[in-house]
Write a structure and sequence with these properties.
Layout (H helix, E strand, L loop, with lengths): L5 E6 L2 H4 L12 H4 L2 H4 L2 H6 L1 H14 L7 H12 L3 E6 L5 H4 L6 E2 L2 E8 L5 E3 L18 E5 L9 H10 L2 E5 L11 H7 L3 E6 L11 E4 L2 H13 L2
Parallel strand pairs: 1-2, 1-7, 2-3, 7-8, 8-9
Antiparallel strand pairs: 4-5, 4-6
Helix pairs in contact: 6-10, 8-9
The structure holds ligand BJW.
Ligand BJW binds next to helix 1.
């Protein structure tokens, strides 16, 4: 592991599970409690904005009750100590990578602590609720929505991600089921360009067969072990 100079890491809900944030597709996960079409599509938002705003207001507030775990902290250590190029891409909308110490995180599915104005399209930091239709800090229109990427919408910074996938030597996927595209296709993209592909997950994911290696177990154990490996400790 120590010989790789360009690494892309993709994280999903599994890395935050041990911090107490529900994953989406596990038993008792978010999609068992809510219909995806109702809370994670633009059509659902148009039909019932209060339901959607409340869903994300609750999840934003819940961030105050959780803390990063050793997996987030290990990736922050990697960012500080790795001498090569590292791109950390997360599908997660929580802020646990940042609170764990990572300074450069690409949130491809947006962030709970950000608001998107549907009038002026500005993204603004947002820490409170949206249910009462507060004005956009930039254009003052009461048209804010959660700055998250719903089904049918384009994830953020795809050009930058695909460029990194084309040139990386190692692609590592952590705590994601491989059920949602385009993230689920990153392993094939990286592998087609010659990268070694490693999966760290509690169980085999939908895309496991595309990885050269799958290590199964909790992220709080597997990720610190892998980081030690890369740093050659
Ligand atoms: C642990 C653990 C522990 C637990 N330790 N592990 C084919 C090709 C391309 C697109 C499509 C396609 N077919 C359909 C589409 C469209 C669609 C799609 O993928 N649909 C699927 C249902 C098939 N995709 C889209 O619409 C996307 N946009 C798009 O495609 O635009 C066009 C485009 C095409 C090509 C290039 C570029 C653009 C947008 C998708 C938006 C997803 N949004 C959500 C909601 C975000 C806001 C919110 O949080 O509410 O993002 S859905 C939800 O799923 C969320 C997550 O980021 C995402 C992935 O979930 P994740 O993270 O994998 O969680 P889980 O729960 O599924 O898995 C957790 C894993 O952790 C499990 O494996 C556990 O075992 C493991 N685990 N504990 C280690 N302790």
């Amino acid at each position: 592991m120590a010989e790789f100079k360009r690494i892309v890491i993709l994280t999903g809900a599994g890395i935050s599970a041990e911090s107490g944030i529900d994953t989406f597709r596990s038993a008792g996960g978010l999609w068992e409690q809510h219909r995806v079409e109702d809370v994670a599509t633009p059509e659902g938002f148009a039909r019932n904005p209060n339901l959607v705003l409340n869903f994300y207001d609750m999840r934003r507030a819940a961030l105050g009750n959780v803390a990063p775990n050793p997996a987030h902290e290990a990736l922050a250590r990697l960012e500080r100590e790795f001498s090569g190029e590292l791109l950390l891409v997360t599908q997660n909308v929580d802020d646990l990578h940042e609170r764990g110490g990572s300074a450069r995180v690409l949130h491809m599915h947006g962030e709970l602590k950000s608001a998107l104005c549907t009038s002026c399209e500005t993204r603004s930091p947002w820490l409170t609720t949206m249910i009462e239709r507060p004005p956009c800090p930039v254009c003052r229109a009461p048209t804010l929505r959660p700055d998250v990427v719903w089904f049918g919408e384009m994830p953020y910074q795809m050009g930058r991600i695909y460029h990194a996938l084309e040139t990386c030597e190692l692609f590592v996927s952590i705590g994601t089921s491989g059920a949602v595209y385009p993230a689920a296709g990153f392993v094939q993209e990286a592998r087609a360009n010659g990268a070694q592909c490693l999966e760290l997950n509690l169980e085999r994911s939908e895309g496991s067969r595309f990885f050269h290696e799958s290590r199964l177990g909790p992220a709080s154990v597997l990720v610190p072990e892998w980081v030690e490996d890369v740093l050659g400790c």
